[in-house]
Automatic annotation (TrEMBL):
Key words of the record: ATP-binding, Calcium, Calcium transport, Calmodulin-binding, Ion transport, Magnesium, Membrane, Metal-binding, Nucleotide-binding, Translocase, Transmembrane, Transmembrane helix, Transport
Biased composition (Polar residues): 1-10
Protein name: Calcium-transporting ATPase
Originating species: Flemingia macrophylla
InterPro entries tied to this protein: ATPase_P-typ_cation-transptr_C, ATPase_P-typ_cation-transptr_N, ATPase_P-typ_cyto_dom_N, ATPase_P-typ_P_site, ATPase_P-typ_TM_dom_sf, ATPase_P-typ_transduc_dom_A_sf, ATPase_P-type_domA, Ca_ATPase_N_dom
Reaction equations catalysed: Ca(2+)(in) + ATP + H2O = Ca(2+)(out) + ADP + phosphate + H(+)
Subcellular location: Endomembrane system; Membrane
Length: 1083
């Protein structure tokens, strides 16, 4: 029984997983599942290739190419790794040659070659020359062209303002140097899906049987009558193949569109002096691109300026070494990530002219990936398949034995086979018909569509989730989200609107109201303008002749730049008055960022900006109301601390701006020493503390309450001040009131970090808010929660969030503010950065699970009923009421059409009234067992009564025996199909009385039901020759409909029967037989 829940029966739980090694504090053992059971993989996110191979080998599969189409192609994965190794070896060889050449270093006797003469064209340098410099990291050649300035002149690019960016200019560049795209391998065509559907072993056997039956039929009865038996089976098989191929092809198109969306990264470039966001595919040679932590290098290029710029080149070289970039090693490779620092680059190679483009063009991206539910369903399908196969073999043996022993009677009541008298051809034809029925039972019994229904519902859900602002990167995450018990959410931009404005300011030792009135503080104002303009990752663009300015950057940077403009800052002029010596980019660990400047007077100023209480703690002075420098005494320190607390209590983000002067002699002059220079952060002079208002998003409180009602705990993890976090948490409904804001409900990251693992595990459940947290604190919280058995979803946007996103069961990256590193570590990207969209993902996740359960209930009912009816009839009478063609039609209804109808139900609010579904909970619940057994028993009882007493019940005793049997069998077939159609409505709502709720909104469901009914009428009334049916009169149709419609009130009565809360498989596993067997199994 436990096999029906996706696990092998009678197998003890393993202590730890072979692929995880000894238990560690990094991940919970509950993830890995039962090692001895190939179908028990609770988390496929980091499962080993060996583990994935094992469950494929254990599955009973009729059509491997179709069943495993959307799982990871293990063979292709190996090929991909080999190609990656080759290309990385090439990249390393070039790097080694470059280093060797650099190490040789001494003066060469060879004369310096002039730069090669470029080919005639729009630009004074050709693609081949650029590619040669970039790929070979040829510093000497770069110098011959005049360095990055010389290359920019040849490419007609201004290093500060970028390219012009008009359509004509971009077109010239694409024509000369190519576009930033690479040729993709063509997707599979419809005919390939047809071919895949034909590979089903049972369908192949049926086609062979149809051909043999066709040949024998034509030989014995002539072409006019003899082709019906074989032709009808062949037609039914072709119909199954075509419908299956259409369904699979449509699915593949959905996946293709989603994959294209995943690859379409958006980047900021500088064009015409302004920063604009464009698709990575629109980047051209000559573009100037700003790079910040977490960005992907979108093309090959040369560094223009960089501050502590460090690049992770592991995607190209295979080495996890961080490479620092400066004027000695200025070459940047496409596909690498910015690990630290910032800078700007000049694009010199795009698309297929880069190593990354060659790499992507040479490997076919395998988007396949198994999900835990898919693996479990393969276990269920294997178990049912083994039962069905056994039943089919029994039916085959019984029918053949009865046929050749003369106990089977035909429609004329005579045995069709008499030893020594029946022709060989007729005997073979009879045996073929029996084999055909047995094989068709296998077709019906082995639920090939069951694991594929997961892919179908996931493909449907992924497409719909795009409309709900969620881009699914990993299929399994969509499914796992339905089991989420905890969501650890960021504050800024997720719970709040990410639209910041400076609403309060403290400067000159007092509160400034309005916050931009600083005219009476000329020195303070001058230093503030200098710090705001230079210590920023944002920018200000002032179009000529226009009054409005365009400010770009993160919401915090934009708010402070807007405030700078209000106090009188001219961004361009302010930046030209001093030059940057060194930058310490904002760091989420240190919560601050700094810059060292050299002013026009050659003075050195060091400016810092960051979390108010942290920067304030470094200050030893401030500028007072008289614009004079004063020492920071205890009274003034208390005043500023209280100001921060008051602003935080009003849910404002507090940022302090400070500076200090520095001795010029102490500044490193060597480029390498400068790169490693730690900016002094002591003896700072406080310039200002500003409070930024970021209002809560509309609807976020309702979304949090909905989560809490659904049994999902929402925790806020933020880098902001604890008091700011508390105020926002109360406003959002995460904390019920300020009275709840006590440890451990609300905790500081530093405090949590200082606890032992056991102490963290103890309080992790109770934490609602974590303030002043670092990304590592978030990771520690995720690990503690997962050790406690929670299924954790985590939101993140920064590069340092990547470990937490990777460790979590579901990593949710922010689409607007998220860095490329964060997105690549995530499973789902929230496109609008809105918490309400996260809650929609939870609904969709639950919908996936619920839809699969609906389909399982529907399909198992058909399985049980069809098998029992045919077995009982075969054993008792030597004949089966449902023939091969009819069973193939039933298979089409329950497999492909049933999956389409039930697996595409949209989510309902009812899903959020339940608790999360545990990953170890059985797929087939007690409610489902009750529903399917009631329906199956009813169908089996009624149809077997009709099979054995149908002639008398239907008043056919006085009619011709052969015709009466055909009418009876037709009515059994018709009633059986109509039972499935009516039962499809029951399957929509397994635990609700109103099965029609929302049915008219699901056009696909209604369309499939309508199509099935129409085709059933056509089959019975007009295709009798093919399906061995006869036309039914209106009374017989009415009887069929009544038999089918009774399943509706029967389902309502069934739902009144209470079921035990303990799953059936748990009860069975506790029985004495199971306990006695367990020790043997474990030895």
């Amino acid at each position: 029984m436990s096999f029906l829940n996706g696990t092998s029966p009678l197998q003890p739980a393993a202590e730890s997983d072979i692929e995880a090694g000894p238990p560690t504090l990094l991940s919970a053992d509950l993830d890995e599942g039962n090692v001895s059971d190939p179908f028990d993989i609770a988390r496929t996110k980091n499962a080993s290739i060996e583990r994935l191979r094992r469950w494929r080998q254990a599955a009973l599969v009729l059509n491997a190419s179709r069943r495993f189409r959307y799982t990871l192609d293990l063979k292709k994965e190996d090929e991909k790794k080999q190609i990656l190794r080759k290309i990385r070896a090439h990249a390393q060889a070039i790097r080694a040659a470059y280093l060797f050449k650099a190490a040789g270093g001494g003066p060469s006797n060879e004369p310096i070659k002039p730069p090669p003469i470029p080919t005639a064209g729009e630009f004074a340098i050709g693609q081949e020359q650029l590619a040669s410099i970039s790929r070979e990291h040829d510093t000497a050649a770069l110098q011959q062209y005049g360095g990055v300035v010389g290359i920019s002149n040849l490419l007609k690019t201004n290093l500060e303002k970028g390219v012009h960016g008009d359509d004509a200019d971009l077109l010239k560049r694409r024509n000369a140097f190519g576009s930033n795209n690479y040729p993709r391998k063509k997707g599979r065509g419809f005919l390939m899906f047809m071919w895949d559907a034909c590979k089903d072993l049972t369908l192949v056997i049926l086609m062979v049987a149809a051909a043999a039956s066709l040949a024998l039929g034509i030989k014995s009865e002539g072409i006019k009558e003899g082709w019906y038996d074989g032709g009808s089976i062949a037609f039914a098989v072709i119909l199954v193949i075509v419908v299956t191929a259409i369904s699979d092809y449509k699915q593949s198109l959905q996946f293709r569109d989603l994959n294209e969306e995943k690859r379409n990264i958006h980047m900021e470039v500088i064009r015409g002096g302004r920063r604009v966001e464009i698709s990575i595919y629109d980047i051209v040679v000559g573009d100037v691109i700003p790079l910040n932590i977490g960005n992907q290098v979108p093309a090959d290029g040369i560094l223009i300026t960089g501050h502590s710029l460090a690049i992770d080149e592991s995607s190209m070289t295979g080495e996890s070494k961080i490479v620092h970039k400066d004027s000695k090693d200025p070459f940047l490779m496409s596909g690498c990530k910015v690990a630290d620092g910032s800078g700007t680059m000049l694009v010199t190679g795009v698309g297929i002219n880069t190593e990354w483009g060659l790499l992507m063009a040479s490997i076919s991206e395998d988007t396949g990936e198994e999900t835990p539910l898919q693996v479990r369903l393969n276990g269920v399908a294997t178990f049912i398949g083994i039962v069905g196969l056994s039943v089919a073999v029994i039916v085959l043996i019984v029918l053949l034995a009865r046929y050749f022993s003369g106990h089977t009677k035909n429609s004329s009541r005579f045995p069709p086979f008499k030893a020594g008298k029946t022709k060989v051809g007729d005997a073979v034809d009879g045996a073929i018909k029996i084999v055909t029925v047995a094989v068709t039972i296998v077709v019906v019994a082995v639920p090939e569509g069951l694991p594929l229904a997961v892919t179908l519902t996931l493909a449907y859900s992924m497409r719909k989730m795009m409309a709900d602002k969620a881009l699914v990167r990993r299929l399994s995450a969509c499914e796992t989200m339905g089991s989420a018990t905890t969501i650890c959410s960021d504050k800024t931009g997720t719970l709040t609107m990410n639209q910041m404005t400076v609403v309060e300011a403290y400067a000159g030792g007092k509160k400034i109201d309005p916050p931009h009135e600083l005219e009476s503080y000329p020195m303070l104002r001058s230093l503030l303008i200098e710090g705001v303009a230079q210590n920023t990752s944002g920018s200000v663009y002032a179009p000529e002749g226009a009054n409005d300015v365009e400010v770009s950057g993160s919401p915090t940077e934009k708010a402070i730049l807007h405030w700078g403009i209000q106090i009188g800052m001219n961004f361009t002029a302010a930046r030209s008055e001093s030059s940057i010596i060194h930058v310490f980019p904002f760091n989420s660990e240190k919560k601050r960022g700094g810059v060292a400047l050299q002013t026009a007077n050659s003075d050195i100023h060091i400016h810092w900006k960051g979390a108010a209480e942290i920067v304030l703690a470094c200050c030893t002075g401030y500028i007072d109301a008289n614009d004079q420098l004063m020492g920071m005494d205890d009274e003034k320190m208390t005043f500023f601390k209280k100001a921060i607390e008051d602003m935080a209590a009003d849910s404002l983000r507090c940022v302090a701006i400070a500076y200090r002067s520095y001795e010029k002699e102490k500044v490193p002059t060597n480029e390498e020493l400068l790169a490693d220079w730690s900016l002094p952060e002591d003896n700072l002079i406080l310039l200002a503390i500003v409070g930024l208002k970021d209002p809560c998003r509309r609807g976020v409180k309702d979304a949090v309450l909905l989560c809490q009602k659904a049994g999902v705990k929402v925790k806020m993890v933020t880098g902001d001040n604890v008091k700011t976090a508390k105020a926002i948490a109360v406003e959002c409904g995460i904390l019920g009131s300020y009275a709840d804001a006590m440890e451990p409900n609300i905790i500081e990251g530093k405090t949590f970090r200082g606890l032992s693992d056991a102490q963290r595990d103890e309080i992790a459940d109770r934490i609602s808010v974590m303030g002043r947290s670092s990304p590592n604190d978030k990771l520690l919280l995720v690990q503690s929660l997962r050790r406690k058995g929670h299924v954790v979803a985590v939101t993140g946007d920064g590069t340092n969030d990547a470990p937490a996103l990777h460790e979590a069961d579901i990593g949710l990256a922010m689409g607007i503010q998220g860095t490329e590193v964060a997105k690549e570590s995530s499973d789902i990207i929230i496109l609008d950065d809105n918490f309400a969209s996260v809650v929609k993902v939870v609904r969709w996740g639950r919908s996936v699970y619920a839809n699969i359960q609906k389909f399982i209930q529907f399909q198992l009912t058909v399985n049980v009923a069809a098998l029992v009816i045919n077995v009982v009839a075969a054993v008792s009478s030597g004949d089966v009421p449902l023939n091969a063609v009819q069973l193939l039609w039933v298979n089409l209804i329950m497999d492909t059409l049933g999956a389409l109808a039930l697996a595409t139900e949209p989510p309902t609010d009812h899903l959020m009234d339940r608790s999360p579904v545990g990953r170890r909970e059985p797929l087939i619940t007690n409610i489902m067992w009750r529903n399917l057994l009631i329906q199956a028993m009813y169908q089996v009882s009624v149809l077997l009564v009709l099979n054995f007493r149908g002639r008398s019940i239907l008043g056919l005793s006085h009619e011709n025996y052969e015709h009466a049997i055909k009418v009876k069998n037709t009515l059994i077939f018709n009633a059986f199909v109509l039972c499935q159609i009516f039962n499809e409505f029951n399957a929509r709502k397994p635990d609700e009385y109103n099965i029609f709720k929302g049915v008219t909104k699901n056009y696909l469901f209604m369309g499939i039901i309508g199509l099935t009914v129409v085709l059933q009428i056509v089959i019975v009334e007009f295709l009798g020759k093919f399906t061995s049916t006869v036309r039914l009169n209106w009374k017989q149709w009415l009887i069929s409909v009544i038999i089918g419609i009774i399943s509706w009130p029967l389902a309502v009565i069934g739902k009144l029967i209470p079921v035990p809360t303990t799953p059936i498989n748990n009860v069975i596993s506790k029985c004495p037989i199971s306990r006695r067997k367990e020790p043997d199994e474990s030895q």
